[in-house]
Amino acid sequence: MMRLTLRVLAARLYAHSTSSTSMAYSAKIGPSILSSDLSCLGSECVRMMECGADYLHLDVMDGHFVPNLTFGHPMVECLRKSVGQDPFFDMHMMVSRPEQWVKPMAAAGANQYTFHLEATTNPGNLIKEIRESGMKVGLAIKPGTTVEELAPWANQIDMALVMTVEPGFGGQKFMEDMMPKVSWLRSQFPSLDIEVDGGVGPDTIHKCAEAGANMIVSGSAVIGSDDPRSVIALLRTVVAEAIQKRSLDR
């Protein structure tokens, strides 16, 4: 009887360990700070973290890869000094030469360097360079890029970003037809962090969560809200419940 009980216990522990290994991702909400009041960016970042944000999403645009122009590593360095070491900076590099900015962004205090697959001819080398600079690696694809083009690199990156709008402008409508990309990535790479960015808020979060996204970028829906804390909590709850359901369905 004792031997049987121990065997059952061991089986349960093994099942728990394999489950937690294969489902090793959690719900994370990252406000897109480009939607905030840029005249007081430091205090806006602090406000978002105090409202429960898990990380901060910083959009870098060079006017070439996308038509818009935002900011570069000097401002990231100033932000890091202003907000301290705790906030996780996820750099979304919408730039035509992502290789050029790896070391400056690392030195400025960036934690994750997310580059676009469409912007480089040698993703493997760039991934290696980012890691050697001490940052996590994110790989993004535009709506027109197939998820199969990202797949060969999925085991070498920390996060895949599926754009749900065309990159470069805020306030666009959420593209629901991008959700099959998220679903496919989740099915093929169960422990990968999968981020969605563009038009995501309370009205669209359920679709993202059900598809398998766990890192949620939200701009105006969070920062423009009268109660960003409640919006962040809502987004996280929906994603966490979807993760839990997926775990139970396995």
TrEMBL record:
<comment type="similarity">
    <text>Belongs to the ribulose-phosphate 3-epimerase family.</text>
</comment>
<dbReference type="InterPro" id="IPR013785">
    <property type="entry name" value="Aldolase_TIM"/>
</dbReference>
<feature type="binding site">
    <location>
        <begin position="168"/>
        <end position="171"/>
    </location>
    <ligand>
        <name>substrate</name>
    </ligand>
</feature>
<feature type="binding site">
    <location>
        <position position="32"/>
    </location>
    <ligand>
        <name>substrate</name>
    </ligand>
</feature>
<comment type="subunit">
    <text>Homodimer.</text>
</comment>
<dbReference type="GO" id="GO:0005975">
    <property type="term" value="P:carbohydrate metabolic process"/>
</dbReference>
<feature type="active site" description="Proton donor">
    <location>
        <position position="197"/>
    </location>
</feature>
<feature type="active site" description="Proton acceptor">
    <location>
        <position position="59"/>
    </location>
</feature>
<keyword id="KW-0119">Carbohydrate metabolism</keyword>
<keyword id="KW-0464">Manganese</keyword>
<feature type="binding site">
    <location>
        <position position="92"/>
    </location>
    <ligand>
        <name>a divalent metal cation</name>
    </ligand>
</feature>
<keyword id="KW-0170">Cobalt</keyword>
<feature type="binding site">
    <location>
        <begin position="219"/>
        <end position="220"/>
    </location>
    <ligand>
        <name>substrate</name>
    </ligand>
</feature>
<dbReference type="GO" id="GO:0004750">
    <property type="term" value="F:D-ribulose-phosphate 3-epimerase activity"/>
</dbReference>
<keyword id="KW-0408">Iron</keyword>
<keyword id="KW-0479">Metal-binding</keyword>
<dbReference type="GO" id="GO:0006098">
    <property type="term" value="P:pentose-phosphate shunt"/>
</dbReference>
<dbReference type="Pfam" id="PF00834">
    <property type="entry name" value="Ribul_P_3_epim"/>
</dbReference>
<keyword id="KW-0862">Zinc</keyword>
<dbReference type="InterPro" id="IPR011060">
    <property type="entry name" value="RibuloseP-bd_barrel"/>
</dbReference>
<feature type="binding site">
    <location>
        <position position="57"/>
    </location>
    <ligand>
        <name>a divalent metal cation</name>
    </ligand>
</feature>
<feature type="binding site">
    <location>
        <position position="197"/>
    </location>
    <ligand>
        <name>a divalent metal cation</name>
    </ligand>
</feature>
<keyword id="KW-0413">Isomerase</keyword>
<comment type="function">
    <text>Catalyzes the reversible epimerization of D-ribulose 5-phosphate to D-xylulose 5-phosphate.</text>
</comment>
<keyword id="KW-0732">Signal</keyword>
<feature type="binding site">
    <location>
        <position position="59"/>
    </location>
    <ligand>
        <name>a divalent metal cation</name>
    </ligand>
</feature>
<protein>
    <recommendedName>
        <fullName>Ribulose-phosphate 3-epimerase</fullName>
        <ecNumber>5.1.3.1</ecNumber>
    </recommendedName>
</protein>
<dbReference type="InterPro" id="IPR000056">
    <property type="entry name" value="Ribul_P_3_epim-like"/>
</dbReference>
<dbReference type="GO" id="GO:0046872">
    <property type="term" value="F:metal ion binding"/>
</dbReference>
<feature type="signal peptide">
    <location>
        <begin position="1"/>
        <end position="20"/>
    </location>
</feature>
<feature type="binding site">
    <location>
        <position position="92"/>
    </location>
    <ligand>
        <name>substrate</name>
    </ligand>
</feature>
<dbReference type="InterPro" id="IPR026019">
    <property type="entry name" value="Ribul_P_3_epim"/>
</dbReference>
<feature type="binding site">
    <location>
        <position position="199"/>
    </location>
    <ligand>
        <name>substrate</name>
    </ligand>
</feature>
